[in-house]
Structure to design on (412 residues):
């Protein structure tokens, strides 16, 4: 029966793809034509930049393998696709503070240790946003989803682990009022391809006004209450005997920064990926001035850091790390959020993407929610019905509503 379902799914997919498409697949970004890739992804995102993708190949998570495609129609390139084959293990899905009846925790963790699935993801598991596709000018994504699915299907079949790719995930597609028509077209096209739409937690994004050239300009736009709270964070960091430095990441500090990153990452309830020790120095070397790192130090030793990336005309707060003991004595995390704003302004960014965690403190800085959705498909279509039944009752937490500014900044 599963074979029949898979056959029907494949037939539906192929019948929906118009003739005339060609596919160039690769497991290394430099195996593709660089000029074509750059033309298709120009202005899209740093997470589609070949410099970033090389870092992901050479210093990315051990359970994540990048894959790429350039798709042509009548020999003209129409889109570039960045995907990731991700091996998910059961233990990565268990909260680190698992609460279970006495005597069952060991059994649950033991069972989880034997479960694993492989996902094929269109997008980037290390970033928050729509970072899987770059379209040629004039192309409409709603009409291209059958070709996107065909490219993902071919990438899966070319993978030696193809039999274990049970899920395909389209990550962080926009779902805002401004894109209502495009989102409706995408939803209709993906429904025909048997994808299930799932709402996610909102991503927090801070609009950086054109008149804000420096961090002091940002502070000046805050009301007295919120400006005072920001200055209090700075004061407490100083009183704790900590200093703040900025600059490229010193490879000699790579291990220290990685240890701080792990102290934060290990506390996440879901830990699908983990960066290796060499990731941050490699990223700094590859991106140069497009990568900013702020480090909080006790003496010469790092106790916290944040990496902020130039992302088109915006910026992205990429990853943070901090010493949990030091964080009990001083507001390290809040200071890192302010540092990311300062770094984004120094990059000339018009917005700063903060990601999905810690919604309340980000809202107090002026960040507002940006809605995205994911689309999920199991290779056995009957499993989609089960997935929908499991997920239809799950509602994302609403983002807090805060306005720290003297005048309301325009929404994204």
């Amino acid at each position: 029966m599963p074979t029949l379902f898979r056959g029907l799914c494949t037939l539906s997919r192929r019948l929906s793809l118009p003739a005339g498409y060609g596919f160039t697949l690769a497991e290394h970004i430099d195996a593709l034509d660089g000029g074509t890739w750059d033309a298709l992804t120009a202005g899209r995102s740093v997470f589609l930049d070949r410099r970033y993708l090389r870092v992901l190949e050479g210093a990315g998570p051990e359970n994540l393998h990048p894959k790429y495609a350039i798709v042509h129609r009548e020999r003209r390139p129409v889109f570039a696709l960045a995907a990731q084959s991700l091996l998910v293990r059961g233990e990565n899905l268990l909260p680190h503070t698992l609460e279970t009846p006495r005597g069952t925790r060991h059994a649950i963790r033991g069972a989880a240790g034997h479960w694993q699935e492989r996902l094929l993801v269109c997008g980037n598991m290390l970033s928050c946003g729509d970072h899987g596709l770059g379209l040629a000018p004039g192309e409409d994504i709603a009409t291209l989803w059958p070709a996107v699915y065909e490219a993902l299907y071919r990438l899966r079949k070319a993978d030696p682990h193809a039999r274990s790719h049970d899920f395909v995930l389209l990550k962080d597609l926009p779902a805002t009022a401004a894109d209502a028509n495009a989102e409706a077209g995408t939803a209709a096209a993906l429904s025909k391809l048997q994808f299930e739409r799932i709402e996610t937690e909102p991503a927090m994004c801070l609009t950086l006004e054109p008149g804000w050239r420096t961090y002091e300009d940002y502070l000046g736009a805050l009301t007295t209450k919120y400006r005072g709270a920001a200055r209090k964070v700075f004061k407490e960091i100083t009183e704790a005997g900590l200093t703040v430095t900025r600059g490229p990441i010193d490879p000699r500090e790579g291990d220290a920064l990685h240890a701080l990153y792990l102290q934060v990452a290990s506390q996440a309830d879901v830990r699908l990926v983990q960066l290796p020790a060499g990731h941050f120095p490699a990223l700094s070397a590859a991106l140069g001035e497009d990568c900013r790192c702020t480090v909080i130090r006790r003496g010469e030793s790092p106790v916290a850091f944040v990496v902020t990336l130039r992302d088109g005309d915006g910026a992205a707060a990429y990853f943070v790390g901090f010493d949990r003991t030091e964080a009990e004595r001083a507001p390290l995390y809040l200071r890192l959020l302010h540092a990311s704003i300062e770094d984004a302004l120094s990059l000339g960014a018009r917005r700063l993407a903060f990601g999905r965690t810690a919604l309340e403190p980000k809202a107090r800085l002026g960040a507002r929610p940006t809605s995205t959705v994911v689309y999920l498909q199991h290779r056995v279509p009957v499993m989609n019905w089960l997935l929908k039944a499991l997920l239809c009752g799950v509602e994302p937490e609403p983002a807090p509503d805060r306005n720290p500014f003297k005048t309301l900044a325009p929404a994204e």
